[in-house]
Each structure stands twice: as structure tokens, then as C-alpha cells.
Write a structure and sequence with these properties.
Blueprint: H1 9-32, H2 39-46, H3 50-56, H4 60-72, H5 75-81, H6 88-100, H7 107-115, H8 117-142, H9 150-171, H10 177-186, H11 189-203
Helix pairs in contact: 1-2, 1-4, 2-3, 4-8, 5-6, 5-8, 6-10, 7-8, 8-9, 9-10
């Protein structure tokens, strides 16, 4: 998601139009079901023409998932922005919490994306891209050599933990999502911490596992 403060008026206007269209698509989908929503209805709700909609989105499912997808795709960049002195697990956890701490991330919307096939298929593309972006950010942070499997495996583990937490949250009204998310990703922390120790040992000129 681009920083609107760094953009000119025209770019900010385009972002505002895109957001208005996506929010209109979400409102209509929640009210009528996504299979019953048409482009002219979304455009009218957002106060633009159907042609304008087609300038921003190729389909109704894409418009419904757009804001959630764009937010998910910030994950890798958020990890890069975390303080370098911060432990890897803490950096990724903080980034994940920031991504999911959004008013739009509510049960009715998330359940709609997960349970309706055409939306689930649309959002799945984002999940793959998000995990790849996270893997790249992790690789940069720990200085992975070419071919290192660790970034991809750790990113996949965080993605799986997030999905498990989401499904639990959707079926249990007694839990708060961010609390559950922190608990789930906390189970992965030892894997990240082990790499932190290895990286620290290597930077200090010691072999992994060598006592100080």
C-alpha cells in the first residue's frame, strides 16, 4: 500500500477512488452476497461510472478483496522497517499485528472471503505473494546466502500460523484475534531465535554452537 503523503494530488485522487470502489464492493457483497453484486451497482455506490470501475479492477471479486490484499502485501516492507536490533521473531510478529490491526478485518468480512469460493480463489493469489515477500524480507534481515531454505520455510510457518489463528477466531467468539495471532506465531519464535543465535555467532567469528 503506497504512502499517500508522498504522492501528488492526482495519485491521491486515484487511490481514493480505488478505495471507495473497494469499500462499496465490500458493503454490497456483505449485504447481498458477492454473487449478486454487479459492476454498475458498485460504481453507483461509489459515485463513479462503470467505466471508471474497469479502470481499477478487472472483476468484482478483485474489488472486494483489494484492500485486504494490499494490506497483506505490506507485510514484507513492514518487517524491513523494524529496528535492526530487534529479534527476528519480534520483528515479524509486530509486522503481522500491524497488518491485521485494521477496522476492515472483522469476522463477517473475513468469513465471506474464506467461505465463498470465488473470493477465496482471488485472495489465495495474495497469500502466495505475501509469503514470498515475507521470505524476501527475512532473507535480507538474516543475510541468507543464495539457496537458503530458511526464509521460505519460516515465512510459510508464519503464514500457516496466521491461517490457523484465523480459523480458530472465526469459530470461537471467546477469543480476540490479535491475542490469538500472537499466541500462534509465538510457537514459531524458537525457530526464528535459533537463526538469530546462529547469525550472531557468525558475526562474532564463532562457529554455531561453540561456547563463548
Amino acid at each position: 500500500m503506497e504512502d499517500a503523503g508522498c504522492l501528488g494530488w492526482r495519485e491521491r485522487k486515484k487511490l481514493a477512488t480505488r478505495e471507495a470502489l473497494s469499500l462499496a464492493a465490500i458493503r454490497l457483497a456483505l449485504e447481498h452476497g458477492p454473487e449478486n453484486v454487479r459492476v454498475p451497482e458498485i460504481a453507483a455506490e461509489a459515485g463513479v461510472s462503470p467505466r471508471t470501475f474497469n479502470n481499477y479492477f478487472s472483476s468484482v471479486p478483485e474489488a472486494i478483496c483489494a484492500l485486504a490484499a494490499e494490506r497483506a502485501m505490506t507485510l514484507g516492507e513492514l518487517v524491513r522497517r523494524r529496528p535492526r536490533a530487534e529479534q527476528l521473531a519480534e520483528a515479524v510478529t509486530s509486522a503481522l499485528v500491524e497488518v491485521h490491526a485494521s477496522p476492515e478485518y472483522h469476522k463477517e468480512f473475513v468469513r465471506m472471503i474464506i467461505t465463498i469460493p470465488l473470493l477465496r480463489a482471488e485472495f489465495f493469489k495474495t497469500i502466495i505473494a505475501r509469503d514470498n515477500a515475507l521470505a524476501d524480507a527475512i532473507a535480507e534481515r538474516v543475510g541468507s546466502p543464495p539457496g537458503d531454505l530458511f526464509p521460505q520455510i519460516l515465512a510459510a510457518a508464519y503464514g500457516s500460523a496466521t491461517r490457523v489463528a484465523t480459523h480458530r477466531w472465526l469459530h470461537d467468539d471467546s477469543v480476540e484475534f490479535l491475542t490469538l495471532l500472537r499466541e500462534a506465531v509465538g510457537l514459531i519464535a524458537p525457530m526464528a531465535a535459533a537463526r538469530d543465535r546462529t547469525t550472531s555467532n557468525e558475526s562474532n567469528g564463532r562457529a554455531p554452537g561453540h561456547a563463548a
